[in-house]
Design brief:
The structure holds 2 protein chains of 2 kinds.
Chain A lengths: L7 H12 L4 H7 L19 H5 L3 E2 L18 E6 L2 E3 L10 E5 L2 H7 L6 H4 L2 H9 L3 E6 L9 E14 L2 E6 L4 E15 L2 E6 L4 E8 L6 E10 L4 E8 L4 E10 L5 E10 L4 E10 L5 E10 L4 E10 L7 E10 L5 E10 L5 E9 L3 H9 L4 H20 L2 H19 L2
Parallel strand pairs in A: 1-6, 2-6, 5-7, 6-8, 7-9, 8-10, 8-11, 9-11, 10-12, 11-13, 12-14, 13-15, 14-16, 15-17, 16-18, 17-19, 18-20
Antiparallel strand pairs in A: 2-3, 4-5
Chain B lengths: L1 E12 L2 E12 L3 E5 L6 H9 L8 E6 L2 E2 L5 H6 L2 E4 L6 E5 H15 L7 H14 L4 H5 L1 E2 L5 H15 L3 E5 L7 H14 L5 E6 L12 E6 L2 E6 L2 H9 L2 H6 L1
Parallel strand pairs in B: 3-10, 3-11, 6-9, 9-10
Antiparallel strand pairs in B: 1-2, 1-4, 4-5, 7-8, 11-12
The chains are: A alpha/beta, B alpha/beta.
Amino acid sequence: MQRKYDDFSEVIKKHVNENYLEDDYRKFFLKKFSDWPSPTNETWRLSRLGKLARKKFIPYVSSSKKIKNSSITNNAYYSLVFINGIFSKVSSDILPEEIEISFLSAKDLITNLNEINNKSVLTHPTLNITGSCFQDFIKLKIKRNCQIDKPLELLQTGNCPNNSIHPLILIEVEENSNVKILEKFETNSALNAPLQILKLQKNSKLEFIKFHNDDIETTNLSLLISFLKEDANCNIFNLINGGAFTRSETHSYLKGENSSMNLNCVYLSTGFQHHDFTSSIYHDYPNCNSSQKVRGVLNKNSTGVFQGKIRVEKKAQKTNAQQMSKALILSDKALSNSKPELEIYADDVICSHGATVGELDEDQLFYFLSRGIDKQKARLMLIEAFLSEIIEESVDKIFMNEVVTETEIAFKKILEN
Amino acid sequence: MSILNIKDIHLSIEEKPILKGVSLNVNLGEVHAIMGPNGSGKSTLSYILSGKEGYDLSSGEINFDNKDLLELSANERSNQGLFLAFQYPVELPGVSSMNFLREAVNIRRKVLGKKELNHLEFVKEARRLASSMFIKDEMLKRSVNVGFSGGEKKRFEILQMMLLEPKLAILDETDSGLDVDALKIVSNGVNNYKGKDNAVIVITHYQRLLDYIVPDYVHILADGVIKKSGGPELAKIIEKNGYAGIVDAA
C-alpha cells in the first residue's frame, strides 16, 4: 500500500548527515528508528501516532546560541531556559557552585544507557530521534553532600511549529545531595521529543515537578529514564494539560536497596486532546518502595491513557509497590483507558493496583445544590476535591502554590465551552 | 401566613404512582409532622420540595413564600430559604467542611441582604453554633461528612440549618440512627431555631422524635395520600396502635 506520509527516518537521516556527519555515535540511534510505532505495538496501541506521522516537519537547528527568551523567569528559582530544545545561556541564571553544568555527546548518551535492555525503551521513538538529532545535551550535576538552597527551574519554551525539537538533559544527583526541580514545557512545535535521564546516587533526593503545557497543536513525546541507587528517594509529579497529544513516559530502575520512587500524575483534557501517562518501575533490589498514582479529568472528546507497569525481580523481596488510577469523565464522548501490568517474580511483596472511571456523583452534586451552591461551583469544588488529595500527597510544599494555581487554571479551562 | 402550600400533587416514578394527590398548607410559626409507614412517599415528598432531579410532578402546584416553587432550581430554593436535612447525608471527600459551609452561608447571606462573612468572622460564627450542637472544631476541619458517625452527620445537618437560617426546614428522618443523647441535642437545636418567622416539617417514622420536637399538626401519609391529619395526639395513637387502623380505615 502506498504510504500517505513522508518517511521520517529519511528526514532525520538527511538531518544528521547535513549537521553531524562526523558523529558516528548518532548513527547508533539513527539506525534504530525506521518508522513511528504502529498500533499493533502493544505499548502504543492506546496512543496512536497516525496524526503525527502525517505531519510534515524537520528537526530544528539553530546557528545562533544567543537567542534570548522573552518570558520572565522567577527569582525564587535558579532558572535554566531552553529555547526550541537548545540551552540559552543568556536567558538563564548563573548556577551556584554546588551545581556543575556541562555538555555531553551522543557517545555519553550510549554510555549512560548501557544498563538498559528493555525493548520498549530501546525502540522508543524519542530515544532514537532525539539521540540522533539533538543539538545540546546538557548535564547538570548536583555535587555530593549538597543541599541546594533554591529550586531549579527548567523552562522549555520556543516557537517553531514546523519543526521537531529535541531537548536532552541528564541530571545527576550525587551522594547525600538534595535538589528540587520544576520543569515547564511551554513550546510550540510540531513535535516536542524531550529525553531526560535522572541518576540518583546513594542517599540522594530529588523532588521533580513537570508541567506539560505545550501549544494546543503540539505533540509531546516525553521520555524520562531514571536510575536510583540505595536509599535514594525520587518524587515526580506530572501535570499534563497541554498539547494536542501528550505522552509522558517514564522508566524507573530501582538499582539499590531502600530506594523509593513516587511517580504521580494529574491530567486534564478537553476538546480532542489525548493525554497519556505511561510508567514502568523495575524493582531490581529488595526493600524498595514505589507508587504510581494518576487522576484524570476529561471533558468533550478527549481521551486519557494510563499504562502502569510494575516489575519485581526475584531478588527484590519486601517490595512495596502501589498503583492507582482514577478518571473523572465529564462528557459522554470522553474516554479513559487504564492498563495495569504487574510482573512479579518475588514472593514476599506487597503490590496493589486499581482503576476507576466515573462521572461526577449525582448525589454529591445534589447535596451542594440543596445548600444553595450552584451547579457550576459544585462541579468546580468536586473536581478540586478529586485533585487536591493527590496534589497534597505528591507535591513538595515549596511548589504547592504554583502547582495548585496551575492546576486551577487548567481545570477551569477544561470546563469552558 | 402561608410559607408552603402544596395543592393536589401527583408523581409517578417509572409509571408507578407514588403520590396520588397530596395537599398541605404550612404557616410560619408552625411545626408539622409527616408520619407514615415505609414506602408511603415521605422521602419522595422531601425530594420534590428540595428539587432533586427525576422528581417531576405529573400534576399539582406548590407555592413557597409566594413563589412558584417548581419554577426554582434546587439551589435557588435553598437561596430562598428552603432547607432539607438529609436522611442520609452525603460524604464529600476532599471538600473541607469549613469551606463548604462558608460557601453556602455567604450565598444565603447575599440573598438576605447581609454582608458576606470573611474567613475569620465565619469561623467564629460556625464555631459558636457548632459548640451548641456539640460539634468539635476538629470535625469542621475534616471533609464534609467523611469519617463522621451517624449521629455526627445528623448534628452537622442541624448545624447547617442554623447557619443558613431557612424559612422552612424539612427534617427527613433526622431521628434515624440517633441514640437518646444525640436525639436530645438535635431536638434542642431545632427547638431553639423554630420561631414565628419560620416553619418546620418533621418527616419521621416513629413518634419518638415528636416527644422532643412537639408538632402543631400531624399528618399520616400512606399509599400516596394524606389519610389523616390531626394534632399531636394523632402521633400517640400511632405509637399505640400502629398505622394499621388508619391505613385500613381510609
